[in-house]
Amino acid sequence: MTNQYVPTFETLLSREDIIRRIIENWPVKRQEEEVLVEDALGRIPVLDICSQLTLPVARASSRDGVAVASSRFAQGMPDTSGWVQGVDFERADTGDDFSDTYDAVITIEDVELSGEGKLSIHEGVNVAPGCNVRLAGSTVREGEMLAKAGLPLRPRDLAGLQMGGITRVTVWKNPVVAFIPSGSELIALGTPLSRGKNIDTNSLLMRETLKEMGATPLCLPIVRDDGQEMADALNRAMPQADIIVMGGGSSKGEEDYTATLLHQQGKVLCHGAQAVPGKPLCAAIIAGKPVINLPGPFMAAYHGLEWCINGLVSHYLNRPARKRQTIEAALTKPLLGSDMVSMLVNMEVVQRRDGKGYLATPCSIRETPMSRSIMANGQYMTKLNQDIPAGGLIEVELLRGLEFIPVEEDKNL
Amino acid sequence: MTNQYVPTFETLLSREDIIRRIIENWPVKRQEEEVLVEDALGRIPVLDICSQLTLPVARASSRDGVAVASSRFAQGMPDTSGWVQGVDFERADTGDDFSDTYDAVITIEDVELSGEGKLSIHEGVNVAPGCNVRLAGSTVREGEMLAKAGLPLRPRDLAGLQMGGITRVTVWKNPVVAFIPSGSELIALGTPLSRGKNIDTNSLLMRETLKEMGATPLCLPIVRDDGQEMADALNRAMPQADIIVMGGGSSKGEEDYTATLLHQQGKVLCHGAQAVPGKPLCAAIIAGKPVINLPGPFMAAYHGLEWCINGLVSHYLNRPARKRQTIEAALTKPLLGSDMVSMLVNMEVVQRRDGKGYLATPCSIRETPMSRSIMANGQYMTKLNQDIPAGGLIEVELLRGLEFIPVEEDKNL
Questions:
Q1: Is the complex ipTM higher than 0.85?
Q2: What is the value of pTM for the model shown?
Q3: Do A202 and A275 have their domain in common?
């Protein structure tokens, strides 16, 4: 088993180079699909979408009030004591249509209207043609753009589309991303633990993160470290997915079946990334589809998801890669980079006591990886050869909303 | 119909005061529920959750390599020519358990291992007790905190919980928020349009936004401007929901049945907010539940959702109100505030051509509300009496991810 082929590169590739290399070699087959507007949240329209309607259909009142003919006010305030509701005026609230006899609206605050329908108008009220009247099409006009190709649909966009009479939209189909966890040491959740065994938690990490990215996850069963089993699993996954992720078995020991398998089946584009944790990432194109071997350890898999899978899913969806919210924070201790790799560092971010800005502390490597992962509300990817002193400012990616950043004091509670 | 009760206040209340007043009068009945970890994304744990497991169960290799007894290296490099695999050493890859005979791991890069199981070790390799061995519990330890009460669960948290042997979590139940669209002018999507009619699009806006906020939406049928119909709809909604939102009918014209209804049925806390669009918002507590009357116009309803309903849903979930991502941007034209109200201004944000910061342009009020809503990738709420000159810096809330902010040139394409 020691004579297996292990693709190697003279130097590790940067994350950007790996993504570029995969995309250049990937004859991506995007598909379109038509979905109901009410199911289209977050989906990305293939083409610009324009209104099919004009609203309001006719001019309408823009205030709660009474509709009148402005011509009767041309010579100053008329005597309204003999006016009859429905003949000389009518009630018209915001958005209401009214008879074409009228062309202006006086707001309800400017009149007194008796229970018997007698109208008196406050002194000094000015009634010009069209006053307090909104024009036909003042909400939306036929042909007006309601959604732009390439921009994910927000709740307000969906409502806008409905306003324009649109019931279905053509969007990019979400890529199906298969995940195959591998490793003879892996057991499914609920199986009794024993020495040398490890619970497969990457499947859930993958599934939930892929959904956030706009992909449809296809989580497949655990396969053992066995070349044939893995080949079979890959062959079953290929026709079902647009992108295939194999977990584990990516480093260079005896059980590195995956890299060998990828080499046998397609074109390996890299085996090794300037990205720690997760350096042994291996990427190939097999039958026109990207097959990525993500390392098994939790944070390594997470890191690969964040940069590699995120990049590929976004490319399939024809959109820029999803970026996390960032804030600028001052480091509370020095951050030492490496000349070989960029490191993902979990960060604890707090708001300064004086409210002026944020502080970021790298999570202690003395903690367990799980503890670091839970404590972190931010993350930072170091650049090559980048040493930053304490107090240096970095752009931290936030892993929770701004509203959850504690203030500095809270840390000592 | 003009003699209806309309609650009025001497002055409009600020958004903060309204939220505070509702919360003070709301005997909120939060409920807990138990959900599977795999279904718990975004849910908020009621209590801290700690690991029930220790992983790895036993110390394990931290590298791909061979496990050996370090004592045999105490006097320098031993002669390994006679060593037998399985007796004098064994293969142990990252995460692997190995026999208790061994206490150290030599990395695969530092040895040559023949197909026949003969081991030779590179010169100069140092083998100390415990080297390349990770301790039991180095991934996660029993009792270690895996999720903190009050913090929404992220994909990495779910995986962490599974790692600690947790399969179910107790979280706050999502509040059910009922939405009752009202207005005789409203028609459901798909109904033929005619003069004076308007398509109900707020139901979809509500439904999708409420889901984003962590609420369970209950969208009810349109009711006409008829006091009895609205009372019936409210009575049907009350037992089904934790928060009730009635849409439309909130301003002061003839058809203001809603405010009257809220007054008849419970305690009205405000009718009028320093918030434009959406000023006529009316809030009451009826049978211990908040009933909010949001104005009908699209942006007014949107604005009320953003500050009022968001605040109430967050309070129910025992979390701080959701904040949107913000960026600092320079205004391209002056922004004039008001001394009476705070205004929600739709913004178009672009990245400066030189890459140094962002520019924000208020969407032109000459555009239709739909067009402004679609164009906007940001929003800003003015403060009372706040006039900001062109070039002034404001914190813009982003309505799309950072990756979608175009660069300045793109605007002229």
A1: yes
A2: 0.91
A3: yes
